[in-house]
Amino acid sequence: MTKSELAKYKKLLIKVREAINGDINHIAKENLKSQRESSGDLSGYSFHMADMASDSYDRELSLNIAGGEQEIIYEIDDALKRMEEGKFGLCLSCDKKIPQKRLNAVPYAKYCIQCKSKEEKDK
Ligand SMILES: [Zn+2]
Fold first, then answer.
1. How many domains does the chain divide into?
2. CA 6 to ligand 1 center in whole angstroms
């Protein structure tokens, strides 16, 4: 992977993390404020979600975000750490390169699709 590709994924990871953070904060805020009318205050959430819907994200990522936001933040931090170690984009299980198409959808992917589906079957 080239330096500029790495930089692109780093940006993407940070952007997704920020979006999720905004999302979590938003949900927390919404819980504090008792059912306030949505009087034009669509701030963080809708903005980020609109952002997330852009081409570089696909449905898999949105579904993952709905699944467990805090967990994804850990995954992203992990991916950033792997990036510093020069291991970003390599499958943790078989050491093969994770296809960029997959990384575009799930920039914090740890496993290639083969290992991932094997792991899911084992469960
Ligand atoms: Zn693999």
1. 1
2. 19
Q: What is the DSSP letter of 98?
A: P
Task: Tell me how far the alpha carbon of residue 110 lies from the centroid of ligand 1, in angstroms.
Answer: 9
Residue 98 lies in a domain: yes
DSSP 4-44: HHHHHHHHHHHHHHHHHHHHHHHHHHHHHS-S---SS--HH
User: Which residue range is the domain that position 72 belongs to?
Assistant: 3-32+44-122
Ligand 1 center from residue 115 Cα (angstroms): 4
CATH code of the domain containing 9? 1.20.120.910
In three-state secondary structure terms, 119 is helix
**Ligand 1 centroid, distance to 100 Cα (angstroms):** 14
Percent of all residues in the chain with a pLDDT value above 90, rounded to a whole number: 51
85 CA → ligand 1 middle, Å = 18
Q: pTM score > 0.85 for this model?
A: no
Is 102 domain-assigned? yes
